[in-house]
Amino acid sequence: MKATVAGAPVSFGVFEMTPADAETIGPNDMLDLLAETGYAGVDLGPVGFFGRGAELRDRLSSRGLELAGGWVELPLSDDDAFAAALPGLDDALAVFADAAEAAPDRLPKPTLADTGSPARKAHPGAAAEPLGTARWDRLAANAQAAAERVRAAGFEPTFHHHAGTFVESPEEVDRFLERVDIGLTLDTGHLLIGGGDPLEAVRRWGARINHLHLKDVDTAELRRVLAAGGGMTEVWSSGAFVAFGRGDIDLAAVLTAVDDAGYDGWVVVEQDVLPAPGTSLAAFRAQRAADQKLNRDALRPWC
């Protein structure tokens, strides 16, 4: 497979909403672990987590890593909120440009996503508060405008369907792709939450997939959390996203299908986790290191 494997801060418990002063696995430690384990790149995580400018480039190049992409969430179905969020997109694009000055083998993929709503976030997978025609029109138009803004900055955008947003279920992904000229980030875990099947997704959208977020899922644990009314924070804290081979997604079949579709891009390992209450940082770090080694080794037959 013509693909390059990257890690992600979410696999170490660092999310965009993580407070800046939270006690977490630091950027240098995280990058060291990924480089030592054989990853070739890393996702951006919170903008600025790995630094900017020369600091970012030095952190990556000294470890033989490149920037794979990064999450940029936008309130696509609300014109005023979308306009107010555009400086955040521009800020993220400036960081991508900082990394690209190192002339990477693969440019990072700015990964656009919808913000969703409190109702959607509280009930992932339930397709709460469906959008009407007018809001779908706004969502599609704003997503297209964001994609064009990314291209104007010299990057090819990708769009991430995501649990808790308005582009969550396979039907919503279909509707989105019919209306917006942008490639798709296939996220195996979030697709499962949205009621889809990852293997069928490759067959259905293979020509549009230009970025891959790979997860394995303990479906029994996931169903338990969702049935209890949990949102995405509860999903991340539950351990439903497990190391490769310990869950129920047929990753070998998905990767073979992606390969057969001619995929040539980043494969970003995302084992989204938050530490359980009372877990020491040292114990959490040790488990993160072990899982990311297992995840990287599991991908070696393909990339």
What distance separates the N and C termini?
A: 6 Å
Give the SSE order as H and E letters: EHEHEHEHHEHEHHEEHHEHEH
- Strand percent estimate: 15-25%
Strands, count:
10
Structural class label: alpha/beta
Helix content: 40-55%
Mean pLDDT: 95
Which parts are unreliable, with pLDDT below 50 for 5 consecutive residues or more?
A: none
- Sheet of most strands: 8 strands, parallel, barrel
Computed Rg: 18 Å
Shape: globular
The number of helical runs is 12
Strand order of the largest sheet: 1-2-3-4-5-6-7-10
In short:
This protein is α/β, with parallel strands linked by helices. 45% of the residues lie in helices and 16% in strands.
Topology:
Elements: E1 2-7, H1 27-37, E2 41-43, H2 53-61, E3 66-74, H3 79-100, E4 109-114, H4 118-122, H5 133-152, E5 158-160, H6 170-179, E6 183-187, H7 188-193, H8 198-205, E7 209-214, E8 216-217, H9 219-227, H10 232-238, E9 241-242, H11 251-260, E10 264-269, H12 281-298
Parallel strand pairs: 1-2, 1-10, 2-3, 3-4, 4-5, 5-6, 6-7, 7-10
Antiparallel strand pairs: 8-9
Features:
two-stranded antiparallel ribbon; 45% helix; 303 residues; single chain; alpha/beta
Report what the structure shows:
There is one protein chain. The chain is of the alpha/beta class and 303 residues long. Helices cover 45% and strands 16% of the residues. The chain has 12 helices and 10 strands. The strands form 2 sheets. Strands 1-2-3-4-5-6-7-10 form an 8-stranded parallel beta barrel, surrounded by 5 helices.
